[in-house]
Specification:
Elements (H helix, E strand, L loop, with lengths): L7 H8 L5 E7 L8 E7 L8 E2 L5 E2 L9 H14 L2 E7 L1 H7 L1 H14 L7 E5 L11 E4 L2 H4 L1 H19 L10 H4 L5 H10 L38
Parallel strand pairs: 1-6, 6-7
Antiparallel strand pairs: 1-2, 2-5, 3-4
Length: about 230
């Protein structure tokens, strides 16, 4: 699997007649706290920006998980000026509890796509599950964030946006380490939950509450008829 994103998928879609292609990626699906955040990004198929690396090496755009925090932050500064357009959408912890992750993710993605200046002809989703369906034309690709420039750009912008959002909660909830863990499981996060219980930003239907006897009674049980099934949290 390539570690540097290219335009292989976009070029295939262009040959099929798609002119405006949006790459979509999400972050926050498996977190205990905070929203799920989606970015939709559109490029003009020009070469993506690169960052200076060690020596004469360049740091090239790829899946945000393969970049250091410093490189993600640096890319997040230059990508908005390079992209043809992009938009962010999210679903709150309350929506996730009420609707389930699949529907919450779908709604966050629709919010991002509808916020673009022009609707895309085709959407590239990272993974193998088309949770958007009609009327959107969708191409699902496993590891698209490592293969598609547009999805890689969306991956970086979604990750940085959510990390900054969660870090902004640190002053109010310093014990939970949101600036470091971004609401994902961590020893500091677990200890804070055991001692202080969940905050208003926690997902109250999540199974982590099963391991907190003192706070287990707060767990919400979602109506199984709400939403349309669940995606893996991995």
């Amino acid at each position: 699997m390539p570690r540097v994103a290219g335009y292989e998928i976009e070029n295939q879609l262009r040959k099929g007649g798609a002119l405006r292609i949006a790459g979509v990626d999400e972050v926050g699906r498996g977190a205990w706290a905070g929203p799920v955040v989606v970015c939709a990004a559109v490029t003009d198929l020009s070469p993506p920006p690169e960052l200076p690396g060690r020596g004469k090496r360049k740091v090239k755009l790829t899946d945000s998980k393969l970049l250091t925090e410093a490189h993600r932050e640096a890319f997040a500064e230059v990508l908005p000026g390079w992209l043809a357009s992009y938009a962010i959408g999210s679903s709150s912890p309350e929506e996730i509890d009420e609707l389930g992750m699949t529907e919450a993710l779908r709604r966050a993605t629709l919010r991002a796509l509808k916020a673009l200046p022009e609707p895309p002809d085709m959407v590239i989703l990272d993974g193998n599950n088309d949770f958007l369906k009609r009327p959107w034309r969708v191409r699902c690709e496993v590891k698209a964030d490592q293969r598609s420039v547009t999805v890689a750009a969306a991956s970086v912008l979604a990750k940085v946006h959510r990390d900054r959002l969660m870090a902004g909660l640190d002053p109010e909830f310093p014990a939970y380490g949101f600036g470091a863990c971004a609401g994902y499981p961590s020893p500091v996060h677990q200890k804070a939950l055991e001692e202080h219980g969940p905050t208003p930003h926690h997902r109250m239907s999540w199974s982590y509450l099963d391991d907190l006897p003192r706070w287990r009674h707060l767990k919400k049980h979602r109506d199984p008829l709400a939403g349309e099934g669940q995606l893996s949290l991995i």
